[in-house]
Amino acid sequence: IYVLATNRMFVLDPSTNSIQPNGEIAFVGTPRSLAFTPDGKWGLTINTTPVIGGKSIIAFDLTSNAPPST
């Protein structure tokens, strides 16, 4: 389960409802809803405050849970 918040995305374990290890991904921005690529590798969200985060679209690599590159 993926949960978006200002400057964060959380990856939750649905069996425990807790954050997975390395499941807190930091970024700068205010996300909207999350969309997924057909292969499931990327999550994409619109940054509703690109003036703050500098990007209009934020991409997350869901295979590594790495923060978005700057």
What keyword list fits this structure?
single chain; 70 residues; mainly beta; three-stranded antiparallel sheet; 6 strands; 6% helix; globular
What topology emerges from the helices and strands here?
Elements: E1 2-5, E2 8-13, E3 18-26, E4 31-36, E5 42-47, H1 50-53, E6 57-61
Antiparallel strand pairs: 1-2, 2-3, 4-5, 5-6
How would you characterize this protein structure?
The chain has 70 residues and is mostly beta strands. Helices cover 6% and strands 51% of the residues. The strands form two sheets. Strands 1-2-3 form a three-stranded antiparallel sheet, with no helix packed on it. A three-stranded antiparallel sheet has the order 4-5-6, with no helix packed on it.
Which spans of ≥5 residues are poorly predicted at pLDDT below 50?
Answer: none
Helicity range: under 10%
Q: Note the total helix count.
A: 1
Report mean pLDDT, rounded to a whole number.
90
Q: What's the main sheet like?
A: 3 strands, antiparallel
Shape: globular
Give the N-to-C terminal Cα separation.
Answer: 25 Å
**How many strand segments?**
6
Structural class: mainly beta
How much of the polypeptide forms β-strand, as a percent range? over 45%
Name the strands of the widest sheet in spatial order: 1-2-3
Using only CA atoms, what is the Rg?
A: 12 Å
H/E element sequence: EEEEEHE
